[in-house]
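testing teh design pipeline on a random one, pls ignore if ur not involved
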C-alpha cells in the first residue's frame, strides 16, 4: 500500500512538472508584434505581412518563416513561436509596400513580445 501511494505521488509530481513546463513554454515563447503605418503615421489595417530569415529569401520572396498574416484594425499582427534572431519583413497593401527597403527587425529577445513599426508607402 505504501509503495502504491509513493508511485501515485511520484506520477502526480511528474505530471504537474511537465504541465508547468509546457505552460511556461507557451507563455515565454518569442513573439514579434508588428504595427504597420503609412508615411503620416496612420495605422494600416488588412496589410499583408511576411517574415523571412535571410535577405536573399526576402528579395526573392521565398521560404517565409510562417504563413502570410493580415494586420488587424489597429494595423497590428503578431508572429508567435519565433527563434530569437533577426528577420526581414515584407509588407504590402494595394500599391503600398516597404519593398526594396530591406526592412529588418534585429535580434528578437527570447521569451518576450518584441515590437516593431514598419512604414509602407506607394514609392512616389
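output:
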Amino acid at each position: 500500500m505504501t509503495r502504491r501511494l509513493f508511485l501515485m505521488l511520484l506520477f502526480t509530481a511528474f505530471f504537474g512538472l511537465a504541465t508547468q513546463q509546457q505552460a511556461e513554454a507557451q507563455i515565454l515563447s518569442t513573439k514579434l508584434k508588428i504595427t504597420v503605418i503609412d508615411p503620416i503615421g496612420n495605422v494600416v489595417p488588412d496589410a499583408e505581412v511576411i517574415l523571412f530569415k535571410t535577405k536573399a529569401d526576402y528579395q526573392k520572396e521565398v521560404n517565409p518563416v510562417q504563413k502570410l498574416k493580415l494586420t488587424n484594425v489597429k494595423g497590428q499582427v503578431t508572429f508567435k513561436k519565433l527563434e530569437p534572431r533577426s528577420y526581414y519583413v515584407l509588407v504590402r497593401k494595394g500599391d503600398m509596400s516597404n519593398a526594396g527597403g530591406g526592412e529588418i527587425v534585429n535580434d528578437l529577445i527570447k521569451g518576450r513580445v518584441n515590437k516593431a513599426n514598419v512604414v509602407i508607402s506607394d514609392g512616389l
